[in-house]
Design a protein that fits this description.
Chain lengths: 108, 113
């Protein structure tokens, strides 16, 4: 069975304090790894798709990287508006499996 | 345009009611999904439609009945729900069923009394 584990569960950062979120996975036949941002009471917002080890993608203050066993979401100089829950998901042969997310709080 | 719309935003229903949730996308996507999300938990897959045919049913109770009238619309019919079915119901769509990112709607907050 496909599994996704995210750490830490919660992260509190000062504005401007860079950090990384981790997503470890085991999957039969990785077809894609996805990062989403979710604000309270709203649907997840798509951020990135990574397909193979070594791949990297960037968007504003966010950078996602992928190895054969894990993915990192690096947040550079975060702002309060980056506060949200970040979800990692993997696509195996049949379906997408989500991790439980990392709740990020950025304090001004 | 990467918008998926869902109606209603909020729904309160009794255990004997029948109601429907609606989802619409105009991105030309051929796969559509229903997820259930409880507070502080990740989305939990319920159903997948691929090219308007039901391809995955994650052992969901029969009180939830999906319908895909055409490639842009997805409905979830609700009947005789239990209070534990209260959750955020999310619709998503993707270009195809494999390897493509899913775009989510804002969700319907369902409360069963």
């Amino acid at each position: 069975e496909d599994q996704v584990t995210q750490s830490p569960e919660a992260l509190r950062l000062q504005e401007g304090e860079s950090s990384s979120l981790n997503c470890s996975y085991t999957v039969s036949g990785l077809r894609g790894l996805f990062w989403y941002r979710q604000d309270p009471g709203k649907g997840p917002e798509f951020l990135f798709t990574l397909y193979s080890a070594g791949e990297e993608k960037e968007k504003e203050r966010l950078k996602a990287t992928l190895t054969k066993k894990e993915s990192f979401l690096h947040i550079t100089a975060p702002k309060p508006e980056d506060s949200a829950t970040y979800l990692c998901a993997v696509m195996g042969y049949q379906k997408v499996t989500f991790g439980t997310g990392t709740k990020l709080q950025v304090i001004p | 345009d990467t918008e998926v719309t869902q109606t209603p935003k909020h729904l309160v229903m009794g255990m004997t009611n029948k109601k429907s949730l609606k989802c619409e996308q105009h991105m030309g996507h051929r796969a559509m999904y229903w997820y259930k999300q409880k507070a502080k938990k990740p989305p939990e897959l319920m159903f997948v439609y691929s090219y308007e045919k039901l391809s995955i049913n994650e052992s969901v109770p029969s009180r939830f009945s999906p319908e895909c009238p055409n490639s842009s619309l997805l409905n979830l019919h609700l009947h005789a729900l239990q209070p534990e079915d209260s959750a955020l119901y999310l619709c998503a769509s993707s270009q195809g069923r494999q390897s493509y990112e899913q775009y989510f709607g804002p969700g319907t907050r369902l409360t069963v009394t």
